[in-house]
Amino acid sequence: MKVENVLNCSFSSWYSLFKDITTKSIVIPLPQEFLEYLLCDGLVLPEQAVDVSSNENADEDNIIGDEIDWSTEDISTPVAEPPKFPDFENIVKKSIQKLGGCVFPKLNWSAPRDAAWISFDKTLKCTCPSDIYLLLKSSDFITHDLTQPFALCEDDENYKNDIHVKYDLVLRKWREFNPSNEFRCFVKNGSLIGICQRHHTMYCSFIGQHKDEIVADIQAFFYHFIQGNFPDKSYVFDVYRRDQGKILLIDFNPFGEVTDGLLFSWEELLGDERLNGTILSNGEDELQVPAFRYIEKSSGVQPNPYTTYAMPKDFVDLATGEDPQKLIDFLRLKVQEQGAEDSSDDESTPEINSLQGQ
Ligand SMILES: Nc1ncnc2c1ncn2[C@@H]1O[C@H](COP(=O)(O)OP(=O)(O)OP(=O)(O)O)[C@@H](O)[C@H]1O
Ligand SMILES: [Mg+2]
Asked: 167 CA distance to ligand 1 centroid (A)?
């Protein structure tokens, strides 16, 4: 995978080519100060009404003797001056209106899917600028877009560091997608080699029952609208099958490990072996039907892969054994607690006994 392949999957690069077969969207260039705001630590939302002047004496009021009384601290005390982006914000507001009042936000490549847990309804549905800011600021996926978009590219490091990316906020008209109708499609050297259920941790009996129609619809869509029109030879595209024969393009992704292979491994996708699709013989020509993978049984349902993003990192590290040192510290703490409990039991028991004796 090369830098050029990643750049070709940037939303503004492909949207104009495939406008008619994807969701209506508006691309807004990100001003430098907004980029800096996204990258700085802390989370202070612009436009939040915080009356800084009324808190001028807040610290003095909370001091009792030489000590600060944190219990009386006004929780509305601002941690930093809220930033302001009035021009940018106006464009965002107007774009939301133009797109019907509800939008799905993303940057050049990624949506803040890992931050959905922070929103009111646990989705990426945004109706105002602050909904968007909160999601973008809370997402590691967005930070990845901003700081290391070419991390897994095999190009020269100096070349990668010199590339100046023009960042955009992409607002897409909100759609109520049924997750069982989303599919990820893998194209290698111009051929559609694999199709996979996009949300691969859920079982959906519908997919197995209609697998032939699903594959046929996606193949027809690929041949008519995608093949030869995307600048690369190998790439990944995501689709939504609204109904029989009705396919909507969702996104393009690079053909490489930076993209989740879902039920395919990148070893098999990149390897020389043919994937296990059906081969149809039409006289002398051979036509390969792509391999289609989906969850075939309801047993062994997997946890949602984004659940861990909603938990403190220490919990995740402990649960997965990622950081053995944390586990050792945790066990030490438990042993100490146990020790403390035992010794307090020893002290309290005579007291109870003596009370009982009275
Ligand atoms: N316009 C939309 N309205 C509502 N939901 C959407 C919309 N576009 C995408 N989604 C949902 O969000 C998911 C992620 O969208 P998208 O592929 O654009 O994000 P991404 O960050 O590029 O994801 P990935 O890294 O998996 O490619 C989709 O699978 C779909 O379920
Ligand atoms: Mg994508």
From this structure: 18
Residues with CB under 5 A from ligand 2 (ion): 251, 253
Q: Are strands 191-197 and 182-188 parallel, antiparallel or unpaired?
A: antiparallel
Q: Which residue range is the domain that position 229 belongs to? A: 179-307
Quick one: which of 166, 191, 155, 349 has its CA closest to 269?
Answer: 191
Cα 253 to ligand 2 centroid, rounded to whole Å: 5
Please tell me the total count of domains within the chain.
2
Between 323 and 215, whose confidence is greater? 215
Model confidence at 349, pLDDT cuts 50, 70, 90, reads: very low
In a domain, 327, yes or no: no
pLDDT band at 13 (very low <50, low <70, confident <90, very high): very high
Distance (Å, whole) CA 208 – CA 293: 10
- For ligand 1, residues with CB inside 6 Å are 23, 104, 106, 110-111, 113, 172-175, 177, 182, 198, 238, 250-251, 253, 260
CA 283 – CA 263 distance, rounded (Å): 33
In a domain, 238, yes or no: yes
Domain boundary at 173, 194, 218, which? 173
Highest mean pLDDT among 147-151, 275-279, 322-326, 335-339 belongs to 147-151
- Could you tell me if residue 206 is inside a domain? yes
> Residue 166 above 50 pLDDT?
yes
Helices (H), the chain: 3-8, 11-18, 32-39, 58-61, 86-98, 129-137, 140-147, 157-162, 205-209, 211-221, 266-270, 313-320, 324-357
Ligand nearest to the CA of 248: 1
CA angle centred on 322, ends 316 and 323, rounded to 5°: 100
Whether the predicted pLDDT of 22 surpasses 90: yes
